[in-house]
Amino acid sequence: MSDEALANLMTENRVFAPTAEFAAQANATAEMYDVARADRLQFWADQASNLQWEQPWSEILDWSDAPVSRWFVDGKINAAVNCVDRHVAAGNGDRVAIHFEGEPGDTRTITYKDLQELVCQAANGLEELGITAGDRIAIYMPMIPEAVVAMLACARVGAAHSVVFGGFSAEALRSRIEDASAKMIITSDGGFRRGSAFALKPAVDEAAAASPTIEHVLVVKRTGQDVDWNESLDIWWDDLVLKQSTAHVAQGFDSEHPLFILYTSGTTGKPKGILHTTGGYLTQAAYTHRVVFDIKPESDVYWCTADVGWITGHSYITYGPLANGATQVMYEGTPDTPHKARWWEIVEKYGVTILYTAPTAIRTFMKWGDEFPAQHDLSSIRLLGSVGEPINPEAWMWYREAIGGNNTPIVDTWWQTETGGIMISPLPGVTGCKPGSAMGPLPGINAEIFDDAGQAVGNGSGGYLVLTEPWPGMLRGIWGDLERFKETYWSRFSGMYFAGDGAKWDEDGAIWLLGRVDDVMNVSGHRISTTEVESALVSHPMVAEAAVVGASDETTGQGIVAFVILRSGSEDGPGVAKILRDHVAKEIGAIAKPRQIMIVAELPKTRSGKIMRRLLRDVAEHRTMGDVTTLADPTVMNLISQGIDSGPNED
After folding, report:
1. How far apart (Å, rounded) are the C-alpha atoms in residues 61 and 41?
2. Is the domain of 460 the same as that of 561?
3. What region, left, alpha or beta, does residue 523 occupy, with left being phi > 0 and alpha being psi -120 to 50 degrees?
4. What is the pLDDT of residues 450-505, one digit of tens each?
């Protein structure tokens, strides 16, 4: 973020205090901060006690093998039982768990009793195929209820799931299968998006053919499109799962038993398999969902618009809401299909009371105009949430006014795949909200902002966001690479977790997130490494060299801008940029498609050969270029800067 942008941001001093009406009914209290400060570990034990444990723990935290933690030592728990069975046993089997809205307009209403039966059938099906505790299963699905059922079935039998976003390519899926040595893939023939069916099975076929560890592919029939069929691998979901018993006896697993692996981009280009275990993760997901969203399971209708392929979908679609017995909406499609008021139509239809979405979506709605939300009754909404990236004050205010009727709290949440759950956020009913600020750490979370020397900075100063104490939902490692785990997260500040984000305290002691300080871009809330995109570009036979930077984008937060040198004999032309953008989409996924590709003769390099991405970011963001004296050829930047004004590439 530029100094000018930061200065403008920090002038936002409006504070929206909790209303007396909201505070009177809030799940959170001001005393929670005091209780957590007085005895942090007992505070977390109290949160864990809200779950159903098959065996109590003997110790709250074992930090003797830091940075690998063990929470609720020797405790035994089953995540699926906590998300489904205990609610049915408590007499809430008829409560709606999921209102499913398909993009074509088809709907399903799934109660907790229905969900219990489906999860039990799926668990029995997995066991029939030889899946046992400790196995890994890849899940590659659209936003349909079977995705949640598959995750819970894995948890029920003790198999760790690895959910791969359905927009990723066959190669991205294969690499994640290979890294986790997954035994099985659960997928569907496809899904619906932007008014038509898209296919998933071909990518699975390609990945499975290159993955010798895969023994079975379980396929949900969603679209009915034709698919290739391998009789030795493929099984229809209906032919296996729906023929099973609706009863299944679940066992408790050790609190530190692996629950899932979720891959996130790394600066080396190789995705990192973030490992989360069961007891601590579920404790934090349930706690944060309950207090940050002020969830009232008997009356609220909650809607998180994320995909289950991301951590937000894990924590705040599957595990957090279901552990709390909430009723939620699950939508398959895009915000503008078949019209730009689609989301608000859904809010009105189901009486959504809590909406959790990304700044990218909010800024898009702003551009479309107020007339679309104004077409529908949004008066049911009582709380709004933002996730994935910092939200600018203008979008925050529009969200509050146009969607929240100018009277709803907004919880601007900061957290990561690695943290497992929300770490920094206002507490509705307790803390005030500043447009654009995540405010402060939740009770039980210890966060600081350090300077380069590792010293805490005071109010009005910025630096590196650091978590100074372990927390239950923290990652337990990078799958198969303990040293990378230590080096990536724990080496910058001794014994403390470095989040990789910059942040600043304002004069009032509120936290403002400033974005990534490494070479990972944040596109629509999704982390994509520059190296990963560069590798994809260079893999094309036309490309000799590439450098990628993230540039500010008013819609997506950051847009990907690539500077490419073509190989000798490859000619630049009007179609080259499209070819290369499509190639990146095939190699990684559409989310990684560069906003703009610049064909250049040279890249700015130091005399030692290092590419000066700082200068490329200056060009991409139309800023005055910084010092070029260290470049081997300072004139290169003049040639590059002349071409950036052409704007984003057209498909």
Report:
1. 7
2. no
3. beta
4. 998 999 998 988 889 999 999 999 999 999 999 999 999 999 998 999 988 888 99
Cβ count within 10 A of residue 601: 10
Residue ranges of E strands in 69-226: 70-73, 76-77, 96-101, 107-111, 136-140, 160-163, 184-188, 190-193, 196-199, 216-220
State the pLDDT at residue 569: 79
Q: Are 480 and 179 in contact (CB under 8 A)?
A: yes
Q: Which residues of 78-100 are buried (b: 16+ CB within 10 A; e: fewer)?
A: bbbbbbbbbbbeeebbebbbbbb
- Whether 503 maps to a domain, the answer reads no
Over the chain, what is the mean pLDDT? 91
The two three-digit tokens of residue 455, written as one number: 């010293």
Q: Determine the longest span between alpha carbons in the chain, in angstroms.
A: 73
Residue 316 belongs to domain with CATH number: 3.40.50.12780
Q: For residue 637, is pLDDT > 80?
A: no
Same domain, 474 and 525: no
Report how many domains make up the chain.
Answer: 2
Q: What is the DSSP letter of 504?
A: E
- Domain membership of residue 232 (yes or no) is yes
Residue 439 inside a domain? The answer is no
Both tokens of 76, joined, read 């035994």
* Domain hosting residue 359, numbered range: 3-429+446-490
